[in-house]
Amino acid sequence: MTGTDGEIGKTVQSVETSLRVVDVIRERERAGVTEIAVALDCSKASVHHHVTTLCKHGYLERDDGEYRLGLGFLSVGGQVREHQPLYHLAKTDVEDLAAETGEQARLIAEHDGRGVTIYRTSGDRTDHPRMHLGSDEPLYCTAAGKAFLAELAPEARDRYLAETALEPYTDATVTDPDALREELSSIASEGVAFDDEERYEGVRCVAAAVDSPDGELLGAISVSGPTERLSGERFRSELPDRLRNVVGVVELQNTYSTWTEQFSQ
C-alpha cells in the first residue's frame, strides 16, 4: 500500500500544524478556533495564525465565526486526480455503470491505508449518503477497501490486521481479525468484495479491484445503494458479475493502450 513511512526525514513543524488544522476542519466539515485548538491541544492564538494564513491563500473560508475548506483545494484536487491513471481509464465506464444500475458508482484509490474517492457519479435512483471527492474511509469495513486488502500478500494482510484497530461503525462491521482474514481470502478468489451495512447502516456496496498489465493495483470500482435495492440476487450475483465485466473491459483497454504505446516507439 502507498505511504510515507521511512521516506521523509525532517519536517517543518508549522507546516505540520497547518495540515493538522486542515484535517480537523475536513473531518468536521467546519469548525471554530476554539474547537480546533482543543482537538490539536494547542493555543487558540496559534490556531488563529494558521487559519488566517490558510484563508489568505484560499485554502480556508471563514463563515459566521467558523472555518471550512476553501476553493484552493478544488484546483489542487483536480490536478491530483488528473495524475491518477484509473481516472482516465475508467471514468466513462463508471458513468455507464451508474446510468445502467441507477446507483452511485465510484472510483477509489488507496492512499496511506485509506480508500480515497477520486471520482463519483450517480444514477437516477441515488438517494443514500454520497461520498465527497477526496473523502477517505477505512479499508477494513468498505467494499473497495477490502478489495485492496485482498490484493496484498498474506504477510502484508497480517501486518495490516495486526496494526489496525478494527473499530465498529455499525453493528455489522467485521471486527474479528480472523473473520476478516477469511473474508479477504474469499475476495481474492472471487474477485469481488461486499460491504453489507458495515460502514453505513442501510447502505450496501459491491467493489472490484483494477490492476495494471504488470499486476500493480490501480484502484477499485464500486457500486453502492440502499439495502432495499441492493438485496438478494442483485446484491450477491448481478452487480458482482457486472462489476467483473466492467473491470475486465477497463483492464483490457489498459493492456491494449500499453501495448500500442510500446510498439509505436
UniProtKB/TrEMBL annotation:
What positions does the domain HTH iclR-type occupy?
12-71
- A single GO BP annotation from the record? regulation of DNA-templated transcription
Please identify the protein, giving its name as recorded: IclR family transcriptional regulator
Every IclR-ED domain range: 72-256
Query: Coiled-coil regions in this chain?
Result: none
Query: Could you state a single Gene Ontology molecular function term?
Result: DNA binding
List the InterPro entries.
Answer: GAF-like_dom_sf, HTH_MetabolicPath_Reg, Tscrpt_reg_IclR_C, Tscrpt_reg_IclR_N, WH-like_DNA-bd_sf, WH_DNA-bd_sf
The record's listing under PANTHER family reads:
HELIX-TURN-HELIX TRANSCRIPTIONAL REGULATOR, ICLR FAMILY, HTH-TYPE TRANSCRIPTIONAL REGULATOR RV1719
PROSITE patterns reported in the protein's UniProt record: HTH_ICLR (PS51077), ICLR_ED (PS51078)
Q: Which UniProt keywords apply?
A: DNA-binding, Transcription, Transcription regulation
Any one Pfam family here would be IclR_C
